[in-house]
Amino acid sequence: MSTDKPKKSSFIQGQITSEFIGNSIAKHQSKTTIGAHNIFLGQVRADVIDGKSVAAIEYSAYEEMAEQSLYEIREAAFAKYELSCLHVYHSLGTVKAGEICLFVFVSAPRRKVVYKALEFLVEEIKEKVSIFGKELFEDESYVWKQNT
Q1: pTM score
Q2: Is there a contact between 3 and 69 (Cβ–Cβ < 8 Å)?
Q3: N or C end of the chain: which has fewer CB within 10 A?
Q4: Burial class (CB in 10 A: 0-12, 13-18, 19+), 85
């Protein structure tokens, strides 16, 4: 694995908007060697825990460590799959139930690879990146989120 520093931030304050997602897709229309894209959107669920509904999740991270982990996951994906592009964005701060908190976007010359690469990326991110979520309830109490 490379230990180079990541070039740009993978983090966005608050929700990831449909405008941001749409603009990301539009930027790839001029890349005519791409034949397929695949997108994963993680959305905050209004889970019910101990009789209380989750109103939002407050995300935090040790950003430098998380960026390095994301960089290593990207490098592994490029080594394992024939990808043209890949982008990962995760929210920090408060994201309300129903809003998008994770956006993973992969592109490749052929369609089959984008399915495999996207699953690899999402599972690696969930397992290896130190992003923490505090589930906030409507009564202002909270519980630390457990990834499943």
Answers
A1: 0.91
A2: no
A3: C
A4: middle
